[in-house]
Design a protein that fits this description.
The chain has about 70 residues and is an all-alpha fold. Helix content is about 25%, strand content about 0%. The protein has helices at about 20-30, 65-70. The longest helix is centred in the middle third of the chain and has 10 residues, at about 20-30. The N and C termini lie far apart (about 50 Å). This is Small basic protein.
Length: about 70
């Protein structure tokens, strides 16, 4: 039986996730200076997830195509 090509990823998701794991949320709070050591791991404040937009790669023009256009 073959695996569907949408399930084959090279070790990670290609799209951004909108839910972070608890450790990732704590790391983000520490980065934003909103975390102190007296806070517990439960009931964490919300953390905004910035979605990175990846653009399509531009094709490189070869020398032959440039000569044809001239």
């Amino acid at each position: 039986m073959t695996m569907d090509k949408s399930l084959k990823r090279k070790g990670r998701l290609s799209r951004s996730r909108n839910v972070l794991k608890r450790g990732e949320r704590i790391a983000q709070l520490k980065y934003e200076d909103r975390w102190n050591d007296s806070m517990g791991a439960y009931g964490l404040p919300k953390v905004r997830v910035i979605q990175v937009v990846t653009g399509k790669k531009k094709k490189k023009k070869s020398a032959e195509e440039d000569d044809d256009k001239k």
